Structures are given as structure tokens and as C-alpha cells.
Amino acid sequence: MKKIRIYLAAFITLLVLSGVTAFPLKTEVTFLMNHLDWFNSTLKGWIISVNNAVQATPDIVLYGTDWLAFAHIIIALFFIPVFINPIKYQINLNIGMVACLAVFPLAFI
Q1: Whole-angstrom Cα distance, residue 60 to residue 95?
Q2: Cα angle at 92 between 79 and 73, to 5 degrees?
Q3: What does the pLDDT look like over 6-33, one tens digit per residue?
Q4: Residue 47, CB half-sphere, CA atoms under 13 Å: how many?
Q5: How many Å apart are CA 72 and CA 89, to the nearest integer?
Q6: How far apart are CA 46 and CA 43, in angstroms?
Q7: What is the mean pLDDT of the chain?
Q8: Which of 62, 71, 84, 96 has its CA 20 to 30 A from that of 41?
């Protein structure tokens, strides 16, 4: 049980962090642009490309990343009961694992 709770705590934490970091997208990309010297040439090129895309994207479209971030945080909340009682809420855990695995085919479609 202890091992399961450690994994769940890490999963919940990372899910919330992935959500929270999607809110200030323009600010984060601007920060990376201001610190390009921290990165190797490959990452510099990628950061510049991402910056160009984010800066060219209308704010109304970036509003969608706020909803994505919010969804990550709400989904993390559904894992709190699993953390408290993994046996009773095993179905939540199974659905969460299927959802995580479903990201891969979705990304390639």
C-alpha cells in the first residue's frame, strides 16, 4: 500500500504541475527566450520555434490551454480518493491508467 501511495502522490503532483505550468504559456516562453544561453543549439532552435508559434497565436486560442490546465487539476482531484483507499477506488485507478495510455494513439492520429 505504501508503494502505491507513493506512486499516486507523485502522479497527482505531476498532474497538477503539468496543469499549472500551462496557464502562463506566453510568460514561460518569454522566460526561456530571455535565457537562451542556458540551452544547447538544438533546444535553442526548438524554443525559438515554439516562441514564434506562441507569439503568432491569438490570445483567444491560447485560452484553450487554460482549460487544458484546469482539466489536469480537476483530474488530479479524482485521484485523491484512490490515494486514500486504493482498493475501494481501484476502478478510478484503472480508468486513469487507460486514459494515460490513450494519450499515445491520440498523439499519433
Answers
A1: 32
A2: 35
A3: 988 998 998 898 888 877 788 888 999 9
A4: 17
A5: 19
A6: 5
A7: 87
A8: 62
